[in-house]
Structures are given as C-alpha cells and as structure tokens.
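Re: the multi-chain job from yesterday

Posting the exact lines I submitted so nobody has to dig through the queue logs.
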Amino acid sequence: MEGGINAWKGLRVEGPPDSGMAYFAPATRPEELIALAWYLEKGSHIFYSELSQRLTDRAAKDLFKELAVAEERHQATLSGLYQDFAGSTSTAGFPESVIPSPEKGEIMEGGMRVSETLDWAKGREVKDILDLSISLEAEAYDLHLRMKARLEDPRGKEVFTVLSHEEKDHLDRLSSLLEQKT
Amino acid sequence: MSILDYFKPVSTWPAEKVRQFMKGKTPDQYNLVDVRQPKEYERGHLPGAKLIPLGELKDRLSEVDPNKPTIIY
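And the result, structure tokens for all chains:
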C-alpha cells in the first residue's frame, strides 16, 4: 500500500496482537467459544436497542434498531452453531450450562460494559455515538479475525468467520451514516 | 520460496484503492499483512491485519495464503 499506514484514512484499531483474547481464554472447546461470543452479542443487542429508543435522530434511531435486531439474529446464529457443534437438538440452558459469563454485568463487543457505555452516551451528539459504535465494531472485527487466525480447530475458526463477516457489514453501515452526518 | 519470487512484479496501490478493494470483499478473500514492528502495530493497525514483522516474513510465509491477493503495509 502506497504511503503505508500514514496514507490510510480509514479505520484503525490499537493494541497488541493478543489484545482482547483473554476474554476467550476460559474456553477450551468450540461450544464454549460460541457461548462466550453469545454473551457479547447479547450485550451489543442491549446497547443498540437502548440507543434506538433514546435517540431522536430518525436515521440513527432506525440504524440502531436494525443493528439491535441483527445482534439478536447473531445470538440465534450462535445458538444454531452450538446445536450443530454439540450435536444437540435443544438449546435449553445455553449458554449458561456451557460456560458461565466471565464478567459481572453485561459486556458487549469491543469489551466495554453496557451500562457504562450507555451512561457515556447520555447527552452526546449522534456523531459521537456513531464514532464510538464504529470503534467498538472495528475492535470486535479485529479481535474475531485474530482469534480465527490463532485457532487450529476448523469449527472454532468457523465461529469467528461468521461473526467477522457480520461485523464488517455493521461497520459499513455505521460508517455510511457517519459520513452522511459529517 | 524460490529465487524467482524476488523478481515477481508487485503493484503498489494508493490507500483509497486498497480501501475500495477491501470494502467489496470478505476478509477470507485476501491477506492483509502488517510488516511493521510490534510497537507500531500496537499504536494502530488496519482492522484484521496480521502482524508479521518484515524480519520474520521469510520464516512465516506459510501464514500467508499464496492463492489470495496480499495487501502489505
């Protein structure tokens, strides 16, 4: 790439190659990775859902509502993957029965606490909230691709492939709206 | 890697062309490699980039899929 990273005007993420991976460290099986990822999707769902109710800007409200629905869909996708991997016909007890959440309270993609992030968002401009959401999605995208590269189990890789594809779509949509707002 | 690989033409793309290229693809369709030092990567890297410092590249070429386009910075 001409000019290297200095010429890059798009998204960047910070942190060492193992940043954020500690969250997934307790998982020893793909099913546990799925459960841990599910907790993050749930946190993101709550975050976007709450934002969609709070904001008055129509375009932002609609986008966050769609993202909230998408995160809920990701939870369903992960539940389905869990069934495939575990050879189970039921998701009863999932994800708690597989592995308990390693955090107290809800956390979301990007590793932030939902309640703290929602507190931060109070009274902020839509542009700032979009900026933060893009950063969180970019960090999650980066983490999931690094996790995929690190794992040897093809089934574990598949979990992170699914998640990273979805996050890329979210990033594109959030970035488009931010471009419209600036 | 053979000696002939050193003579293969490599195109240089402007950052905007790279951005457009990646926008239309999933991350499975290309390799994105950061060849800087770990501290530089840590200060900021493109989302999804794999860190392979230039000095390690020769020994870690197996981590780069030769069947996909590779973007290096």
